[in-house]
Design goal:
CATH class of chain A: Alpha Beta
Order of helices and strands of chain A: EEEHEEHEHHHEHEHEEH
Structural class of chain B: alpha+beta
Distance between the termini of chain B: 28 Å
Largest interface: A-B, 33 and 24 residues
Number of helices of chain A: 8
Helix content of chain B: 40-55%
Strand order of the largest sheet of chain A: 6-7-8-3-9-10
Number of strands of chain B: 12
Shape of chain A: globular
Shape of chain B: elongated
CATH topology of chain A: Rossmann fold
Number of helices of chain B: 11
Number of domains of chain B: 2
Number of domains of chain A: 1
Largest sheet of chain A: 6 strands, mixed
Distance between the termini of chain A: 30 Å
Strand content of chain B: 15-25%
Strand content of chain A: 15-25%
Radius of gyration of chain B: 30 Å
Oligomer: heterodimer
């Protein structure tokens, strides 16, 4: 088991159904799980098993019918939560990475990243500077003025990751982040996500079908018919635990530097 | 960061083409308003150019423009003697149509007494009529030039002066000639016809008739007092210039005004529907982007702003382009187009309101977009 310092995502008895009566479909049934800071976990299961619904519930997009959820210490979906609170939660605490990157086609790479900061109230110049820092950190700084249509698949996905990271989210949700990439680029993206999880002490939850990626996850939650069938610890998780145990100080130092860099105060290597 | 501008810049060609189409439509709305104003201006041009304080016409008529009016030629002398009348002049009005250089020419002939009210005041070239016969002053719209000779009835007239903007309600150009010439043009018969009339023993009709007498009143005497004096003759009526203008605008062009108003309303509704459909289509094209915006935490006001700003930009740019287009092309229109700043201001406000209403459909779709749509493949 990885040396998890803090639980960022905690779901208890989450159930979600769509429709009523004969048309009722139980998408999730009493799902309970937790993900800690720095963990990279995967949601696996056949089509229709409830992976996307679960991702939407964790992403504060779909409200469950039963159960509760705690994200970074905040209990979500009780009677006090309003739509705008969920929006604020998504903006401040959750980063999304999509299968097809979903960059806004009318904004260049920098503005796609800066938009998230701008929405959070960051001044225009600071937003741009921090966006460029992130793009350079993800090695796509040379494409900062490129429109999404001018980017390759790998570059677009890196810009999308930069956007997901812009507001220092504590939870990053990735919906098949490597599906549109070849094996080599998929591996690079996964390594990058693992690195970011460690550096920023964020929890990364991804949906994937890619066997090559599954091996790089810390834990795997298998879903079937809306129920959590099993929780497996992968080789990477075991290795990660060893690594975390042995190099925790180095990881903390890197995370500290990354955080400083995103604040625009120090260079990142 | 203005998303509306960025989106427009991204698809600039489509936006420009859309604005171009819309500007033509709004240009037609502006043209309709301009035609109405032009029609009013044309209707009042002749009345105002005569600069009369009182119009003496046939009793119980709204003559001479709204109804026919015929009074004896010596009425002028009676009116001129009324206390307060500075000067008075007899005028006749008649429409003639002729073909000149293969082109049909419709003219509105005004007969007046040179040196007395009723003649042209907006002479832009040449001189006033100085001879008793066979001279005329024409409006530039006729295409006539000084020295041109024009055959009207049995006589040939020489153009000695030109006016600008002398037109009638129907847009016909005005030409001025002496009262005597105008009466001859109206009443003189050809020699064979005169011989036939003489042969059957018909009496020669009195041709010393005019359509109205126009008078200028001393500023110290109320117009109403002069009008009251005129009313003592039971065969005469007196109208002030304001009465004439009211008759022309309220009664004569009322139907045209309503018709143009109806067209403008229909076109405005059509514009609203078209803007709605354009905004709806643009929104439908952006559903995935809108879902992404919602997913990353953009508030509804950002998304509504994107749609409303695009709608307003489209409306405002199209209105300005349409107005500029009409302004540039108005001199080539067959009817006068007068672009009144107040009308343009009202139309602009209407376009802004229409754009706001038209974007409601797009906004309705956008705010209902499920953020989860961004995660769909």
């Amino acid at each position: 088991m990885q040396a998890v310092t803090k639980t960022l995502v905690e779901l208890r008895s989450i159930s979600k159904h769509f429709g009523e009566g004969e048309a009722r479909v139980d998408a999730l049934h009493e799902v309970t799980l937790s993900v800690g800071a720095g963990e990279v976990v995967g949601l696996l299961g056949p089509s229709g098993s409830g992976k996307s619904t679960l991702l939407n519930v964790i992403g504060a997009i779909v409200e469950p019918n039963e159960g509760w959820m705690r994200l970074d210490g905040e209990v979500v979906y009780d009677h006090r939560w309003l739509r705008r609170d969920l929006r604020r939660l998504r903006l401040e605490k959750i980063g999304f990475i999509f299968q097809f990157h979903n960059l806004l086609p009318f904004l260049d790479s920098t503005d796609n990243v800066a938009l998230v900061l701008h929405l959070a109230g960051c001044p225009k110049d600071d937003s741009k500077r921090r966006a460029i820092d992130l793009l350079e950190y993800l090695q796509v700084g040379h494409r900062k003025h490129a429109m999404p249509s001018q980017l390759s698949g790998g570059e677009a996905q890196r810009v999308a990751i930069a956007r997901a990271l812009a507001n220092h989210p504590r939870i990053i949700l990735a919906d098949e982040p490597t599906a549109a990439l070849d094996s080599e680029r998929a591996g690079i993206v996964m390594d990058l996500l693992r690195k970011l999880a460690a550096e920023q002490q964020a929890a990364i939850i991804g949906v994937t079908h890619d066997d090559k990626i599954i091996g790089r996850l810390d834990r795997i939650f298998r879903l079937r018919d809306g129920c959590l069938e099993s929780t497996e610890e992968s080789a990477a998780g075991r290795g990660g635990a060893d690594q975390a145990g042995s190099s925790g100080t180095a990881e903390s130092a890197r995370a500290s530097r990354a955080g400083a860099r995103f604040d625009g105060s120090a260079p990142l290597r | 960061m203005n998303l509306a501008f960025r989106d427009i810049r991204h698809k600039l060609g489509r936006f420009v083409l859309t604005c171009l189409g819309l500007s033509l439509l709004l240009g037609v709305v502006v043209t309709m308003a301009g035609i109405y104003r032009g029609q009013t201006a044309d209707a009042l041009a002749l009345v105002r150019s005569i600069q009369a304080d009182v119009w003496v016409v046939q009793a119980d008529t709204n003559g001479p423009f709204a109804e026919s009016s015929r009074i004896p030629g010596n009425t002028r002398e009676m009116i001129a003697r009324i206390d307060g009348v500075i000067t008075a002049g007899s005028v006749t009005f008649q429409a003639v149509q002729l073909t000149r250089n293969g082109r049909r020419l419709r003219l509105h002939v005004v007969g007046y007494e040179p040196g007395r009210p009723g003649g042209p005041v907006n002479l832009v070239a040449g001189r006033d009529i100085t001879r008793s016969h066979y001279e005329l002053i024409a409006d530039r719209q006729t295409g006539l030039a000084i020295g041109d000779r024009l055959e009207l009835g049995r006589y040939v007239y020489t153009v000695v002066g030109l006016t600008q903007g002398s037109v009638t309600l129907s847009g016909d150009s005005v030409v001025y000639m002496t009262l005597r010439d105008a009466q001859d043009l109206q009443f003189d018969v050809t020699p064979p016809e005169a011989r036939r009339e003489a042969a059957r023993g018909a009496r020669r009709a009195n041709t010393d008739m005019v359509n109205a007498v126009v008078a200028r009143i001393s500023p110290n005497i109320p117009v109403e007092a002069v009008a009251e004096d005129v009313h003592r003759w039971k065969h005469l009526s007196a109208l002030s210039e304001a009465d004439q203008e009211a008759i022309l605008t309220i009664t004569v062009i009322e139907r045209a005004r309503r018709q143009l108003g109806l067209f403008m309303t229909i076109l405005t509704v059509v514009s609203a529907v078209i803007i709605s459909l354009i905004i709806y289509t643009l929104t439908m094209d952006k559903l995935r982007e809108i879902a992404t915006l919602k997913l990353i935490g953009a508030p509804d006001r950002t998304i509504i702003g994107l749609i409303v700003q695009q709608s307003l930009l489209m409306g405002v740019i199209s209105f300005i382009a349409g107005t500029a287009l009409v302004s540039a092309a108005k001199d080539w229109f067959p009817r006068r187009i007068v672009m009144d700043p107040t009308d343009l201001g009202i139309l602009f406000a209407v376009v802004v309101v229409v754009c706001l209403l038209a974007s409601a459909l797009g906004v309705r779709v956008a705010v209902r977009v499920d953020p989860a749509r961004a995660l769909a493949g």
